[in-house]
Amino acid sequence: MISSKLNLKSLTAQDLNAIVELDQACFGGLWTCEGYQREIDSPNSDLLGLVSPTSSTKILGMGCFWSILEEAHITIVAVHPQYQRQGLGQAILYFLLRTAGDRGMERATLEVRASNLQAISLYQKFGFQTAGRRRRYYQDNGEDALILWLPDLQYPQFPAKLDHWHNIVVDNLQKYSWDLVNSH
Fold it and tell me: Is the pLDDT of residue 33 over 70?
C-alpha cells in the first residue's frame, strides 16, 4: 500500500478559499472569509492546516488557537468529512499543543458541544479535563458547551508527553497510509 504525504503548514491569505470550503464542509459556515483573514493577520492567532499533494481537497484539516496571556484558547479543530477517523484530528491537536508550548503558553483551553462525544474523547486522550459548562452556549440549537482545559504546558514533563503523543499520532496516521512529512 502506497502512503500519501501529509504536511503541516501555517495557513495564509492564499489559502482563504480552501479554508472557507473546509469550514463549510465541517461547520456549515462558522466563520466568514473576513473572519479567517483576521485570524491570519492577527499576531495572537495560530491557524495551522494539514495538506496533502495527492488529495483533491486542498486542506484536509485545520486548527486554530488564540494566545491570550499565557493561555492557548483553541477555537477550531476541523477535519474534512471525507478524511475523518483517520488520525488527522489527533495530528492537528498535537500540532496545536506543540505550537502553544513552543510559544510559551502555560495551558490550553477550549469549548466543545456537550453532545460531541467523538471530540471530547479525542481531547481527553490528550489529557484535557472538564473545567465547567457554558449553558446554552451554541446559538444554532441552544446546546451547552463543556469547557475543557489542559494545564502544565511549560512543566518539565511536557516535552516527554509531546514525544509520546507524536509517536501515537504517527502510528495512527500510518494505519491509514498517511506519511507525516514535517512532524518534528
Answer: yes
* From 36, 83, 94, 111, the catalytic residue: 111
Question: Please, what is the Cα angle at 57 between 19 and 175, to 5 degrees?
Answer: 115
What domains are there in the chain, each with its CATH number? 4-179 (3.40.630.30)
Helices (H) and strands (E) in the chain, counts: 5, 8
Q: Which of 123, 137, 143, 176 is catalytic?
A: 123
What is the distance between the alpha carbons of residues 147 and 32, in angstroms, rounded to a whole number? Answer: 24
Side-chain half-sphere exposure of 129, counting CA atoms within 13 A: 5
> Which pLDDT band holds residue 2 (cuts at 50, 70, 90)?
low
Contacts of 14 (CB under 8 A, 6+ apart): none
Closest Cα to residue 88, out of 1, 175, 161, 160?
175
Residue 123 appears among annotated catalytic residues? yes
Could you tell me the pLDDT band of residue 137, with boundaries at 50, 70 and 90? confident
For residue 36, indicate whether it is catalytic.
Answer: no
pLDDT at residue 25 above 90? yes
